[in-house]
Amino acid sequence: YIALIAIYCAIMYGIRTPDRFGVSCGQHVLSPVCNAASYVDQHILGVSHMFFPTNISQISFQRMKECSSCYPGQCPLSDDVLPAWCENAPFEPYGITVTLTSTCTVISGMHVGHLMTSFSEK
Q1: Strand partners, 77
Q2: Taking the complete model, does pTM exceed 0.90, yes or no?
């Protein structure tokens, strides 16, 4: 459990991401365009499995303040000049790095469930 969290933190804060879409990235940057989780997914699984804001409307950067005229709701992209990453940056909400923290949540839930059933039997 602790090892999974340590691996997650090492990935997110230890990997240096290159500059993308005119945004200065680097180490310890957790912005949507520069985070290490996206960088790891692109290099291990490839970009072809990832979502793009242009091919999916429900899960995307379109709901972010920087990319939308009616933040936080779902609405069309703003008519203003948007950052390039709003329309072109790939993202994966179910990638490898996110799976590490999801596994920790499942393990925690399993332990709490075990505690609840063991105390309810007494």
Answers
A1: 68
A2: no
